[in-house]
Structures are given as C-alpha cells and as structure tokens.
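I'd like us to work through together how a protein chain folds, taking it slowly. To get us started, please write out a protein record for me. Go ahead whenever you are ready, and we will take it from there:
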Amino acid sequence: MFDIEEELKKLPACPGVYIMHDKKDKILYVGKAVNLKNRVRQYFQASHQVSSKIARMIEQIHHFEYIITDSELEALVLECNLIKEYRPPYNTMLTDDKGYPFIKATVYEDFPRLLFAREMKRDRARYYGPYTSATAVKETLVLMQKLFQLRSCNRNLPRDIGKGRPCLNYHIGQCLGPCQGYISKEEYAENFQQALDFLNGNHKPMIDLLEKKMREASEKWDFEEAAKYRDLLTSVQQVAQKQKITSTTGEEERDIIALAKGEDEAVVQVFFMRGGKMIGREHFHLNHVRDESRESVLEAFVKQFYSGTPYIPKQILLQTEIQDATVVEEWLSDKKKQKVTIVVPKRGEKEKMIELAHKNALMVLKQDSEKIRLEEKRTKGALKEIQEWLGMKELSRVESYDISNISGFASVGSMVVFEEGRPKKNDYRKFRIKSVEGPNDYASMYEVLTRRFLHGLKEREENAKIQSFGVFPDLIMMDGGKGQVNVALKVLDELGLCIPVCGMVKDDNHRTRGLYFNNEEIPISTRSEGFRLITRIQDETHRFAIEYHRSLRGKAQVHSILDDIPGIGETRRRNLLKHFKSFEKIKAASVEELENVPSMNHNAAASVYDFLHKPPKEENKPPKEENKNSK
C-alpha cells in the first residue's frame, strides 16, 4: 500500500524527475525539480496555490515515483524523454509530430551525390536544411539533377567504373556518366561545387548562365532548346523567390518562435532562418494549456520541439522569457556541440520578426479553433455521451474485438484500441486462432480474450515496463449482443478481472441500434456523436480483422507445389521458375535439363523430377463384388 505521507518524508533534497500515477498506474504528469523534496511536497500542501488543472490532477494521484539525477540539466533531458514517451494528460503537449527533411551532400565520396535524408546523422556528409516540405526537397533535387547532371546511383565509384551500362539518367541528359569514365574526378568535383554554391543561396551565376544559353538558342532558332532553358530558368527563379525574406543583422541561422493562446489550446509559429534567409515556416498545436501561463506553454514547446528536431540553430528568438532559459541553453548547446543562445528581443528588426510570427500564430489559432472544437466534440464529447449512457464514472480507453473467417478457414481475431475517442493504432493487435476448428465465433472470441488478458496480467506480474497488453481498458465493446458479452464476462470472471463489457446490438439491416449492458438493451440516438463514434469503432474493428484475414488468405494462395519438394529451397525454386518460365515446362524437363539450372545438382534435379512424375495416390475403394452370374 502506497502511503503518500510516508513517501514524502523519504524524498531526497537533490535534482531529479518526478512521475505522478493514478490508481490504474497511468502516468498523469512528469516534472523536473532542482530539489525533489521541496517540489513534490508542494503538491500536497493545502497552503500552496495551484491552478485548477493541477488541482484536478492532484485529486487523481494515487502514488508517485522519482528518479534522481546528478544535475538539473540531466533532469531536463530525462523529463523531455519521458514526456515524449508517455504523453501524460496533464503536461502541456505538442500535438504535432513533424519531421523535417534534409538534402545530404556525400562530400566524402570521390564522385559525391545529393540525396534526400530524413534525419541528420553524425557522419562525414554535409547537410542542408531542415526544409519544411518533403515535396520541396524532392523538387529541388530534381532541379539540381537537371542543372548539374550529378549521379544519383549507388555504385561504388571509382571501383565500379566501366562495369555495366550507364543508367537512364545518362541517356536523358541528367547525369554526366562518371560510372563510364565519361567525366574526370576533377571536372565532376567542379560541377558538384557549383551545386553546393546553389544550395547555399548563390543563385545569380546559374540564372545568368541559363539566360545566356536561352538567348543563344533563340538566336540559332533552336526554339525547343530555348524552351528547355526557359523552364529551368523559371524553376531556379522560383527557388530563389522562396528565400526572398532576408535578415540584415548578419545572423546566419536562427529560429523565431511566437505563441497565440486560446482557452485550452495554443498555436506556436516558427520561422526558420538559414544563411540570413527565411527557408520556411511551420505552426504547431499544443493542448492541455488551460490555466497555464504563456511562459510555461512556450517553455514546454521549446523543450519538446528541440528534443525531437534533428537541427538546432545557433540562436532562438522567443516572444517571452522562459523560466529555465539557462538550463535549456546548456542542454541545446550540448546537443549541437556549439554555443546556442536564447534571446527575447525588445526592439528593432528581431522584435518585428517576433511580432510577425505572433500574428501568423494568432491567424492560425482563429482559423483552427472551430475545427478543434468540432474535433473535440466528435472524440472526447462522443466518449462522454457513451459514458453517460452506461452510467460510468470515467471512460478513456476502449477496446473492441472481432472475429473474421470464411467457413472457418484461417480464423483470426482483431483488437482495436481507442483512447480519448481517437484510434491508438500502436496498441492494435492481431490474433491467429489456434485452438478452434471451424466457424465457431464464440469459442474463437474466448481464445482471443483469454490470450489478451493473460498476456496483460503476465506483464503486470513481472513488474516490467508495461506495454500495450499491460494497460487494461475502461470498457470492452463486443461486436454483437448478449452472446458475445457473456463470452467476455466469462473470461474476465475466470481471470479475476472487473472490466465493464457492452455489446453493440444490430438491427435486421445489420446497423447498430443500441448497446447491451448489464443485461439490458440501451437505445441510443443515431444522430448523436456517441453513435457516430461507436460506428467508427465497429468499422475499424471489422477493417482490421478483414485485412489480416485477407493477408493470410493471400499467403495461402501463393503457395506453390514446388514448396513441397524435399531439398528444394527458395533459391532453387526461384532459379527453376526463372529458367523455365512456367510450371508446365519444369514438369516436362528431363533430369539432365533440370541439372543445367543454376544451383541445381543431380540429386536435386532427380528429386524434382521424381516428385513431379510420381503416380497419384490410389484411393482406398472397396473391391468390386464379383458378378455371381458371370461365367
């Protein structure tokens, strides 16, 4: 039994991270502290003033745990990692999980390439970005290939020069053919450097060159060639135009961050400045901001955003001061391996950029507030309706199950999970029925539920890190009426679990008309958000089960008779089909012809021949009775 008063006395007076849990062991909140003893005790002191949101959290705290660290910096890093992993409901959360692509220049290769990269690694390559649009990166790479004709293949050059034919890019004029030795290493390096200069924002030489070539082609009346240069020129000018917002302060790289806060949601706008030019902007939504100050929301964003983004600029401009600015600077500098500074500008050009970012954030918040309200209504609002219909005190996690088979063939079960009215696909699970033969949905469901909750109980007993099976639902929804509900209740009773179970009852047209709960049918309005959520849960459960069943059927249908031949593995099967093109030709081949196939020897060839030419098994039929009248 966890005694909060006793555990508070044991708290150490050192830096660390504290984690608040409810009675179901769900993590409610993660925080860091310079002094764990003082910080955690504040939550349980009546004299300490807290926001209404934190007051609601304190009411739910059943127990807490803490992790000691050597410094406040270590506590900050650990706090960011835990928030990202567990997404506690009472922490201000960054809802967008966006990744930013890069252009990777493999400068360490003899014939370097420009590649699309999802993350920046600590290798010998040079990275450009991050860019806010993957599409823009891909379009830029296509343009670079047309302009500078760099290779994009994976050949190991110069080792593989002359091996194999040149690829299509060479034939359409988008590669200089280094794989064939058509260009020297020095000439290629000069071309590659021009490409890097272009990526660094030096577009004028290329614009001048394209304009010159376009004029020369026009003067020669080669209008097709002139049109090609015109199109390239247009593309280059568009890339240059996207970087028209420049900074005159000489700072090469910075992020400009401003916030617009609503009732329980906020929008943060980020401008990305690189090389004195704005390369893009992005907005991010945060929730659980009710009763939070602008400073604390902005601080939460900075911690979560820079714990996930692969690139950190040298300078970060913020709209307001944040409490842990010094520690955050130290953390970011350590991640970047360079000095990173956080600045709150009060005047001048930087302050104007902050104001521009704030106006953009405010505009997005106004545009999206109605959308957010409707989304809340169809998710949390719908869940609240179901909770009221069933008379439950709380409802967050719902699990739904279904069985799929065709005349008992390859029976499978599906488990889908909805949390806060939204699908949680990482927790979906598939079950291949092992103990039931034939189309017995009740027995199959019994097996699925038993396996699911036994696995969950095992996770809990081992006191390991609880995975999805170890998290039990607030409600189980069965795709059916009384029969399926009774199966679920039987499993729970046998395992000593107490979880509410309701059935989704259908009418004669297979449409949900009500919920079967506590031995009675509860009618529901088909125009309510709760009904629509139930329909989405049903459809998702069916879809997940049917897709899994379809995949198993597909695997069964591609089974070949060659799979059953002793001594013939995947490589030999593939070589046989590649050599003879069809099963009929394999069957018609002699042992000598089969031996000529790569990887086949005499024994393997004989095995194939004997297997395909063995006589069919005779059925055991009773002997015919002799006609007694025959002579």
Q: What stands out?
A: The chain has five domains: 4-91, 102-201, 253-368, 397-555, 561-613. The radius of gyration is 33 Å. The first helix runs from residue 4 to 9.
